[in-house]
Design goal:
Keywords: Membrane, Signal, Transmembrane, Transmembrane helix. This protein is an alpha+beta fold. The chain has a domain of about 90 residues: Immunoglobulin-like (Sandwich). The strands form 2 sheets. Strands 3, 4, 6, 7 and 8 form a 5-stranded antiparallel sheet that branches. Strands 1-2-5 form a 3-stranded antiparallel sheet, with no helix packed on it. The longest helix has about 35 residues. The chain is rod-shaped and about 235 Å long.
Length: about 230
């Protein structure tokens, strides 16, 4: 009985050791799966209104703190350090933002460092879009040269002359057609002649007749006087 109990006890210990080793291996594998990794980081160049920004997202479910540093690149060399921030990832993803007035087709290097887990760049480098967030204002264009006024096109049918187009003047009425001279009063001496319709020679004839009457009267007077002288003698 004692001889058989030793192997059984050893076998039980051996099984327990195998189970413990398997559990430790499983826990180690799980820990490595939850550890921070560069593949859990991503970067993007976007626009916030008319301002450019660079965002970095960490989807590390373990939430291991990591430091993210952004550099502007030119021909494979760092031109300037844009900024540096710390991020703690999450299963849904944690995003940090760097304000940067990036230019189209610019290149940025993003480095991630989590002590004991990762210390490397996000590959490939970030290249910004080909269109900027806000277009540069174009200089005002020169005003167009003044063009001469267009020559009027003659109409198909020529217009009538002014003489033909004008309506004939209305004929004067009877009150308007009377000569103004007819309204002028005649002289006092010629009023009877004008009323009887005699012409302007009547006055001359009347004057000659009167002169003849005077001459005739004088002749009769001298004749009678001469006759009286003769009778006295």
């Amino acid at each position: 009985m004692a001889v058989l109990s030793v192997p059984r006890r050893a076998r039980a210990v051996r099984v327990l050791g195998v189970v413990s080793a398997s559990a430790a291996l499983a826990l180690g594998t799980a820990g490595n799966a939850l550890a921070c990794d560069i593949s859990e980081f991503s970067a993007e160049a976007k626009c916030d209104g008319d301002k450019g920004v660079i965002t970095v997202t960490d989807v590390d479910a373990a939430g291991i703190p990591a430091t993210v540093t952004v550099y502007l690149e030119n021909n494979g060399a760092d031109v300037k350090k844009v900024g540096e921030q710390e991020v703690k990832g999450s299963r849904e993803g944690t995003t940090i933002t760097f304000a940067e007035k990036w230019k189209p087709n610019a290149e940025y290097r993003i480095h991630v460092k989590a002590a004991g887990y990762v210390d490397e760049d996000i590959k490939p480098n970030l290249v910004t879009p080909a269109t900027a967030c806000k277009k540069e204002e174009e200089p005002p264009s020169a005003p167009p040269a003044s063009t001469p006024p267009a020559t009027p096109t003659p109409s198909a049918s020529p217009s009538k002359p002014a003489e033909e187009s004008e309506s004939p003047a209305p004929e004067p009425s009877e009150s308007q057609s009377t000569s103004p001279a007819a309204n002028v009063p005649a002289p006092a001496g010629d009023s009877n002649l004008a009323e009887t319709g005699a012409d302007s020679n009547t006055g001359i004839i009347a004057g000659i007749a009167a002169a003849l009457v005077v001459v005739g009267g004088g002749a009769v007077f001298f004749g009678m006087r001469r006759r009286g002288a003769n009778s006295d003698s």
